[in-house]
Specification:
The chain is mainly α. The chain has a domain at about 70-135. The chain is built from 3 helices and no strands. It is rod-shaped, with a radius of gyration of 44 Å. The protein starts with about 70 loop residues before the first helix and ends in a 9-residue tail after the last helix.
Length: about 150
């Protein structure tokens, strides 16, 4: 019975390489399928043209950092903080837009959103001041006319 394993090495020796039936270095390689080609068919041409090389790996470019003042403008515009946040949101939003243009940073949308929310908050502040002034003016100018008896 034959085994696929090579014989064990002799005592103290190196294992012998298995004999796979490879041709000698000067002999031509056997036909790829070990059968001769059918009559009228040319012999197998070999491996043929190789496939084109794979495309190079994609290059990933790191995204530019987000401007910190743009984040601050958005957060302060959302928080409002008795109109202090609205004022700071407008200031930080304008400074952030300027820095984003100069440095090529990300965060333009956040800066614009902070500006819009800040201006909306300042609009409500102006409305509250206007209603307060009108209300106190109307209230203080009201003259109480005594009723006739």
């Amino acid at each position: 019975m034959s085994t696929p394993w090579p014989p064990p090495p002799p005592e103290g020796g190196t294992p012998a390489a298995p004999d796979y039936g490879l041709p000698s270095s000067g002999a031509p390689p056997p036909y790829p399928y070990a059968f001769p080609p059918p009559p009228g068919q040319p012999p197998w041409p070999g491996p043929g043209p190789y496939p084109p090389p794979y495309p190079p790996y994609p290059v990933y470019v790191a995204a530019p950092p987000t401007n910190g003042l743009a984040i601050a403008a958005l957060v302060l515009g959302i928080l409002w903080l008795w109109w202090v946040g609205s004022i700071l949101a407008v200031v930080f939003g304008h400074v952030a837009l300027s820095q984003i243009r100069q440095r090529g940073q990300a965060g333009r949308g956040m800066a614009i959103a902070g500006l819009v929310l800040g201006y909306v908050g300042l609009g409500f502040l102006a409305l509250v001041i206007l209603l307060t002034v009108v209300g106190t003016t109307v209230h203080s100018s009201a003259v109480i006319v005594p009723a006739r008896t």
